[in-house]
Amino acid sequence: MDANTAKAEYERLLAQIGAEYSSKQPLNKQKGAMRQIAYFTAMVNILAEKTIKESGKKIQGLDFNDDPRGLVYVLDSERRLIGSTSRRYDGAFPDIINPLIVWEIKEYYYATTFGSRVTDGVYETQLDGYEFHQIEKATGVHIEHVYFIDAYRTWWTQGKSYLCRIIEALNMGLVYEVIVGHQVLTRWPQLMKQFL
Hints:
Layout: H1 3-17, H2 39-55, E1 73-75, E2 81-84, E3 91-93, E4 101-107, H3 116-139, E5 144-150, H4 152-158, H5 160-171, E6 177-180, H6 183-195
Parallel strand pairs: 4-5, 5-6
Antiparallel strand pairs: 1-2, 3-4
Helix pairs in contact: 1-2, 2-6, 3-5, 4-5
């Protein structure tokens, strides 16, 4: 999607579900007129919350972490630390302690040039995958790692080679799944249901 399409899909989703959500709707990091809701991230959050609510398994709060401000920790049955990550993620289910799934979101709607921010994001994702493999090898705990990307111009016009690197990471098992653009509306709820 581009920024206008993402905004339209976000507004359509809000109209469909009403105001019955409490997940974060963060702003992007742009300035001036481009400072808007991070539409793709907001859709990921709303759809995760909606799927959990519809499952009937919601107990209290969100039952997922929509804004982790800490690292992922793996604890054993006696609550001893046996593994951790070195980076924060954009979301985790059910939380950052012993998650079943973590996700990161890269939406670059307002990027004017293809720069180091995009390349760093791809590289970090690959390193995260290796880290999750190490955690599983050392502890036996498997954590699914999902990567969301959007911005047609960034990925299809400027960064096809990096899009290929993402597909490579997927094929190498460094990410569990890559969800692109409009797929967030259909595939993300399906995937969340698998973990519920």
